[in-house]
Amino acid sequence: MDLHEAQAYLQASLHEVTHAFHKVPGSAVLIRYIQSSYQNDPVRSAIELILVIFFVRYLLSPSYPTHGPNYVKLREDEIDELVKEWEPEPLVAPQTPLEEAEAERQPVIVGPTGPKVKLSNGKTVTNLASYNFYNFNASDSIKDKAIQTLRTYGVGPCGPPQFYGTQDVHMQTEHDIAVFLGVQNSIVYSHAFSTISSVIPTFCKRGDVIVADKLVNYSIRKGLEASRSNIRWYEHNDMEDLERVMKKVAEEQAKKKILTRRFIVTEGLFEMVGDCANLPKLVELKEKYKFRIALDETWSFGVLGRNGKGLTEAQNVDSEAVDMIIGSLAGPLCAQGGFCAGSNDVVRHQRINAASYTYSAALPAMAAVTASETLQMLTCNPDILLQCRENIRAMRAQLDPRSDWVQCTSDPENPVMLLVFKPEVVSSRRLSDEDQERLFLDITDECLANGVLITRLKSQPMIGSIGTKDINIKPALKVCITSGLSKKEIEKAGVTIRHAITKIMTRKPNKQSSLAA
């Protein structure tokens, strides 16, 4: 091919390419842009061309180099040997001696749970390790309603809400919760734990500010992690420290001239301590510094207040002054799942943005109806709560003032009594957290041997989670009170627990638990 033929071929090819390019939609716009750009600023056109070439080269290049001084090509037998020697890291850490001992001694209940339960060894014991505070689990009317619902709706909806899993009973339960609390609307989740851990990241994103109590529970901490917001901590139940943190946040944002969403996240009754928050002061501060409140009433809903409406009723605060009230339908309500109550906008936003709501199967109809029934019983018969509180006072009378070893950190109306060692006991015996855990495990075993089932506070999941580096969660015994037992039975169980504590704490050193090894 001579020079003239090559030029002719090149011109024909260029013509075909140009003709094909003109057929591409938007090509004329691109050509006009390049022509005007080159005429106005040829330097910019050159820079853009270089960037395009670099971008194409970057896309075509491998993600990592396969040649160079640090790359060693292995033989097949060397690869096989390395594969044979490789061992994956364990998914979970190995159990500690304390966890192994606890797993071996774990009691197993045979049959239904209640104030009295039968264990797998055939022994019947008093059950003070259940959240069945009002013994709704034994209510014949609730059982009949649940059976009727099961026969009508089946076992489960087998689908997520808002698509094909929402049933009329779900809408009724949400309405009943909203009316019970005195708010505009509510939304029901199928799992209590994931409710608050989903609500927080639904409203809080990267760059937002969350001010949280240092002793909030594990599910709240998972929500804080998922939100990726800026987390500020304040000392537990210290309203002065809370105001200091809120004031600092407000001043920083005013100085930088930025405005983000700002939330206070706390609990009604604290799971790890048992005391309650100062809600009137929280509302005052949130209005002063323009924050919103997300109140987790998992442990206070159905417990505090004349009708069990929670902290708002107990401390005489308008429920609409709290932006979001999160609670559990399990435990005292004897159902399943959780809820978030608030304004219509708050609820509507969660129906399409809350991960645990959108990507989980809807609540079983039987659990939804059970929650509505128990709410109705609390509304119509508030004396149920009075009977439980009478039993709480009876148990406290046997333990807190009479024991030389432990004290109760829970609120006087909290049916979950947390018993921790007194500071003088810890200091005089130089007890580490592990030592206290071992002693409490021995105490629960001693109580069980004498016919009373209690448990311990599970603080292990908290270790390593967000915001736990500078806090000390005290090991504790957990005693759950129920109105299903008479006052005399509660007092008898309290004496048994007190004697078990004294026996373990006064035993001779050579009779220490085998766990000490």
Task: Walk me through the topology.
Blueprint: H1 3-23, H2 27-40, H3 42-60, H4 76-85, H5 97-104, E1 109-110, E2 116-119, E3 124-127, H6 140-153, H7 168-181, E4 185-189, H8 193-203, E5 209-213, H9 218-227, E6 230-234, H10 239-256, E7 262-267, H11 279-289, E8 292-296, H12 311-314, E9 324-328, E10 338-342, H13 344-353, H14 355-358, H15 365-380, H16 383-399, E11 406-408, E12 416-421, H17 423-429, H18 433-449, E13 452-453, E14 455-456, E15 477-480, H19 487-505
Parallel strand pairs: 3-13, 5-6, 5-7, 7-8, 8-9
Antiparallel strand pairs: 1-2, 2-3, 4-10, 9-10, 11-12, 12-15, 14-15
Helix pairs in contact: 2-3, 6-15, 7-15, 8-9, 10-11, 16-19, 18-19
Structural summary, described in words:
Residues 511-517 have low confidence and may be disordered. Helix 2 crosses helix 3 and helix 8 (193-203) packs parallel to helix 9 (218-227). This protein has helices spanning 3-23, 27-40, 42-60, 76-85, 97-104, 140-153, 168-181, 193-203, 218-227, 239-256, 279-289, 311-314, 344-353, 355-358, 365-380, 383-399, 423-429, 433-449, 487-505, and strands at 109-110, 116-119, 124-127, 185-189, 209-213, 230-234, 262-267, 292-296, 324-328, 338-342, 406-408, 416-421, 452-453, 455-456, 477-480. The strands form three sheets. A seven-stranded mixed sheet has the order 4-10-9-8-7-5-6, with helices on both faces. Strands 1-2-3-13 form a four-stranded mixed sheet. A four-stranded antiparallel sheet has the order 11-12-15-14. Strand 5 (209-213), helix 9 (218-227) and strand 6 form a beta-alpha-beta unit. The chain is an alpha/beta fold and 517 residues long. The longest helix has 21 residues, at 3-23.
